[in-house]
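Can't paste images in this forum, so I'm doing it all in text. The chain is below; anyone willing to post the predicted structure tokens underneath?
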Amino acid sequence: MNQDICQVNIIHEDRIAKAKEQLPQLKNVTQIASIYKLLGDPTRLRIMLALNASEMCVCDLAALLETTPSAISHQLRLLRTAGLVHARKEGKIVYYNLEELSAQGLLREGLLYLETI
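Text version of the structure:
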């Protein structure tokens, strides 16, 4: 007997209606899933956490994470395309930081969740 499956087939129409009412559109769910997929990579998540502490350039991040500037640059491009990080150029140096409201909120919620488990 599988404990994960109902033993009887009953449809609770009221619960389905409530969930359907609150369920976001599929395109929004897909966008959220792509953001979570990006954050599912440990290197990208570490970059985000580092940028949450301080604005940094590619060389800073590469030194911190003990990897190559090329690898960091690739990951930053993905994060920037998703709107999670922002770049600003100062002379010949490009500094990266988090898109304050959206990205910081994601990180904060993830860290808060860890405290509860």
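The chain has a mean pLDDT of 91. The chain has one domain: 13-116.
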